[in-house]
Amino acid sequence: xxxxxxxxxxxxxxxxxxxxxxxxxxxxxxxxxxxxxxxxxxxxxxxxxxxxxxxxxxxxxxxxxxxxxxxxxxxxxxxxxxxxxxxxxxxxxxxxxxxxxxxxxxxxxxxxxxxxxxxxxxxxxxxxxxxxxxxxxxxxxxxxxxxxxxxxxxxxxxxxxxxxxxxxxxxxxxxxxxxxxxxxxxxxxxxxxxxxxxxxxxxxxxxxxxxxxxxxxxxxxxxxxxxxxxxxxxxxxxxxxxxxxxxxxxxxxxxxxxxxxxxxxxxxxxxxxxxxxxxxxxxxxxxxxxxxxxxxxxxxxxxxxxxxxxxxxxxxxxxxxxxxxxxxxxxxxxxxxxxxxxxxxxxxxxxxxxxxxxxxxxxxxxxxxxxxxxxxxxxxxxxxxxxxxxxxxxxxxxxxxxxxxxxxxxxxxxxxxxxxxxxxxxxxxxxxxxxxxxxxxxxxxxxxxxxxxxxxxxxxxxx
Length: 463
Ligand code: LLP
Fold this sequence. Notes:
The protein is of the alpha/beta class. Helices cover 28% and strands 25% of the residues. Helix 4 (119-127) links the parallel strand 6 (113-116) and strand 7 (135-137). Ligand LLP binds at residues 7-8, 94, 96-97, 115, 138, 237, 240, 276-279, 320-324, 360, 364, 420-421. Substrate binds at residues 323, 360, 364, 392, 421. InterPro entries: Ala_racemase/Decarboxylase_C, DAP_deCOOHase_LysA, De-COase2_C, De-COase2_CS, De-COase2_N, De-COase2_pyr-phos_BS, Orn/DAP/Arg_de-COase, PLP-binding_barrel.
């Protein structure tokens, strides 16, 4: 199988270039700041430190495998996003990337809103004190119970995903004597992934209501007739790990076109558009993500231009970055176990975690970097594959990387940029215990999600 398949799934296998690692980097000790969180550096002895704490101490105190999250980097990225979008826009952090109560508190302190897509995420958000009006509720198949809770608790917006859901949410709101603020999620016929985007006539996917065939216009018509619903805008999310703004451009143009149609037909100018998330991060040195201020400027220029040409007042914009905020802020620390050189092929380096803490490599053929972090080494580079300890040959953490040839059992290695969709997609496969998430900041480290224990496993198994 090609290893260049797209991180968003095999459907996109045709859009990425081949092979990142054509030659080893000049110095394997260099920690490329593109892929590591901001406070990561090597100390005088050559060991990695984050937030001023060395990995040997972190491993001793918290064990391995473990995710270490650079809290000041997380907060700085939140501020960069909200500063970039300014007062005329709203940033909703996409909780699916990684959510915990500590994260919710940081978001609040940094002034961000939150996108949730399940009852569990909603509960976590509310329990940590996120005001309901700052929450957007997503999902293509929200349960009756989720809808009831969201409306009753007064979430700021529910993003409607189907014709049936329009009726369900309106019924609940009416029964509770409420008027629920809603957006309609439309599929604009754009699939944007990494360096490419594909514009198609219509999309073959489960999310949203198609613009094509007048379906989204029909959804607007229905929502506007229902007393329980207040239509605040249109939502579009076009994909994952996107670097190329062209997909957003097409999406914004099509959404604005719908706003113009709504104005012409109903005499209503909808006040908001949400352009979703999906902004890319650097997993390897080859990736070149854009800064939030460039993204904000590009998006607001596109929307302003399209609205001017349609004769509409510019709506308030919202965005939903998940990966771009939390992704780069964490790394996974592993201890090296078995090392198996395969003559003429590569060396298999087994670590004490695997596909249970990072399914993205197996699931999406995603690319990651890896470094020896407990010491420096000037040994020759060797081609390695970092694999886990699961009973599955596809249990690969990093497919191809160079590591020093003196790598030995007991060394600590770390995979950067694992803040998004690693802990949140972690599993108990082979009854693995999901690793803790440890927040590190200014010389202090504290567990924000604890490691699972064997008692946790047994307590779910009722015998
Ligand atoms: N808004 C909506 C409506 C979404 O569906 C998503 C992601 C986001 C925002 C946030 O996207 P982000 O900025 O994090 O890319 N598990 C996959 C990613 C799935 C994303 C699903 N929706 C992965 O590991 O790459």
